[in-house]
Design brief:
Number of strands: 2
Radius of gyration: 31 Å
Low-confidence stretches: none
Helix content: 40-55%
Distance between the termini: 50 Å
Strand order of the largest sheet: 1-2
Length: 224
């Protein structure tokens, strides 16, 4: 079994997982989503308190009456499907509306901030997740390019190097595992600019141009 570890300034063996860095943000995001769903389930219908106003000498609701009333509220008035449904109250019952503050109802900003922190921990530009903000096409293209060049390809190169060191003693020192960056469509524009720049450099030989582009030499490529 090969253990691949990311950099950790205090633990070279176990490393530091991105999820460990973003653990608190993940908990905030999950808690915010659970809170929003619970708020929708429990407050989509009338949100408030039922107050029993019987005669002064009358006892309160019995346990059976309380259980029946609670069951009827859950079945007939709770949930998004019953939103806005009018309530029918028995004698002695009064409904008191208790509204939620806007901050209790709106978790969009909290969820977006938590999602942004999670994305940054994994090296993903937040705008690729469609988080509200300055998401123009140019910024999105630059973010996608940055994601490939600064996150995906270094991680692939690190994994390939570790696999090479691990498998080479068994299959031969000439074993090399790598990746084909030219197959990545997101890097096509960068490759075109590099090729155009090298093609215009008449002071370089063909093999020098090929080496700068990441290719091997060819026969007769040492002449200008």
């Amino acid at each position: 079994m090969l253990h691949l570890a990311l950099f950790h300034q205090l633990d070279d063996y176990c490393g530091l997982a991105p999820l460990a860095v973003a653990g608190m943000a993940v908990e905030v995001h999950n808690a915010g989503a659970a809170w929003s769903k619970a708020l929708l389930d429990n407050a989509a219908g009338p949100s408030g308190a039922l107050i029993y106003k019987g005669p002064d000498t009358a006892p309160g609701l019995t346990e059976e009456q309380f259980a029946r009333l609670k069951r009827e509220l859950e079945d007939a008035y709770q949930g998004s499907a019953n939103a806005g449904r009018p309530m029918v109250l028995e004698g002695g019952l009064d409904w008191k509306v208790m509204s939620y503050a806007p901050s209790d109802m709106d978790f969009a900003d909290t969820l977006a901030q938590a999602a942004r922190e999670i994305a940054l921990a994994f090296g993903v530009p937040p705008m690729l997740l469609r988080i509200p903000g300055d998401n123009t096409y140019a910024n999105y293209a630059e973010a996608n390019l940055s994601f490939w060049r600064q996150t995906v390809l270094p991680l692939v190169a690190r994994s390939a190097a570790a696999l090479t060191r691990w498998l080479a003693p068994r299959f031969g020192d000439e074993l090399r595992l790598g990746f084909d960056a030219d197959a990545v469509d997101a890097l096509a524009e960068v490759r075109e600019k590099l090729w155009a720049k090298l093609n215009a450099a008449d002071f370089l030989t063909l093999n020098e141009k090929r080496a700068a582009a990441g290719y091997g030499p060819v026969e007769g490529g040492e002449r200008l």
